[in-house]
Amino acid sequence: MSAQVDAGLGTSAGDEHQTVVIKPSYDPDLVNEDLAPLRKQSWGTYNIFAFWMSDVHSVGGYVTAGSLFSLGLVSWQVLIALLVGIAIVQVFCNLVAKPSQQTGTPYPVICRASFGVKGANIPAIIRGLIAVAWYGIQTYLASAALTVVALRFVPDLAVYADRAQYGFAGLSGLGWAAFMTLWVLQALVFWRGMEAIRAFIDWAGPAVYVVMIALAAFLVAKAGIGEIGLTLGTVKYTGWDALPVMINAVALVVSYFSGPMLNFGDFARYGSSFEAVKRGNFWGLPVNFLGFSLLTVITASATVPVFGHLITDPVETVSRIDSTFAVVLGALTFMTATIGINIVANFVSPAFDFSNVSPRRISWRMGGMIAAVGSIFITPWNLYNNPAVIHYTLDILGAFIGPLFGILIADFYRVKNETIIVDDLYTMSPAGTYWYTDGYNRAAVGAIIPSALIPVLCVLLPGLEGVANFTWFIGCGLGFTIYALIMRRRPVLGAQPA
Predict the structure, then answer these.
(1) What is d(CA 253, CA 241) in angstroms, rounded to the nearest whole number?
(2) CA distances from 75 to 220, 238, 485 (A)
(3) Which listed residue, 23, 166, 369, 398, has the most CB atoms within 10 A of its CB?
(4) 3-state SS of 146-186?
(5) Whole-structure pTM over 0.70, yes or no?
(6) Whose CA is closest to 246, among 69, 435, 93?
(7) What is the pLDDT of residues 305-340, one digit of tens each?
(8) Going from the N-terminus, what domains does the chain have, and what CATH number goes with each?
(9) How far apart, in whole angstroms, are the C-alpha atoms of residue 102 and residue 41?
């Protein structure tokens, strides 16, 4: 990619159709063609809607939605908890979207306003490392669908699925082959740039709906409409005792979306207007998630009469169908959907995050590949191999994501009064608004330490298990409050000593 610096234009994120502004005054240690503010913002309501469809319509999204209906609540209680949770996500996504859409800049660049032009590398690296973990987890979940397809066509491969005989680092030989195949396919889509990613998510999310509706119709027809219910498992709570469980369900929804919620600015920056982004969030979150959840529970409910027991994993569900065509179509569709969420939530974002660390040396593409390679070495299947580990992983990640979100929101809405001087995001000059002291805002750095430490302790210390599911909320609230209190002593704008 070569920037047209003399005209103030360049290509963005590997995409020759997007244009960016690169002014001669921008410091080369703070800008490249991928981090520069966009001149042209072309994503409309449908593109944001499709983004959320790709984010929701995955194996992880299916299992999460299904788990809400198996908490021992009656169906209307689950629906209320689900809608409250996703409404919270929608509000927070609108909040985090505005600064990036307004300035045309990605998440790590916006963080320069609160952490300083150098200090922004702290949230960028934290968010990037979290995305590496999630990238590996989602790739692993998608590879399970590919394994199903492989075994359906070549049953003799089953011996290589035995970890005892052909296992390495906790994964079977066949599992490794499927994981690396998905790893390469995702890298190929990512390498083609943001326009290719937009085209991919524009059809991936709707495609899953088509297959989900077909799968639900097939199972309902086979089970009989009278066998279908909206409550999975045994109802345990019918009165006020259900309230704590409902609150936990709300927290689960918010925690699941905390990653893409934090870095939503990486996509909102492409929005043609803030109104278009908000409309896309409305259709893509409460409306879409409710529809997908209902399809999920109908499908899962039908597995009891059809297969004899409850199945909440969509890949396992399609693997039980007699038709080879149906198995292949279903597995490939869920695999495609999971690739979609992985690319939009866990490939694009660390690409920006790691590029922000050293814009001269690390391009958007190289940043994404750093995340992809790192995802192999964390052996993600060991982070997501049973419910206890899943909840532990979500709680720890939420403890770090929450404070970053709280500080960003406090800075833009309370401290900066929704005003960002874009040019000062790209200057090392001590006279720059976001230089602070040596490029670091000590207020933000100081706020993130207790804001992350306290929720982490809620996960690790015995006796605090009851609040462990709320680490994101605790961290977000602490980050917002501590940062806002410290910054009250400073003028709204202008470089200040820490």
Answers:
(1) 20
(2) 18, 11, 42
(3) 398
(4) HHHHHHHHCHHHHHHHCHHHHEECCEEHHHHHHHHHHHHHH
(5) yes
(6) 69
(7) 998 888 877 878 888 888 888 888 887 777 777 777
(8) 41-380 (1.10.4160.10)
(9) 10
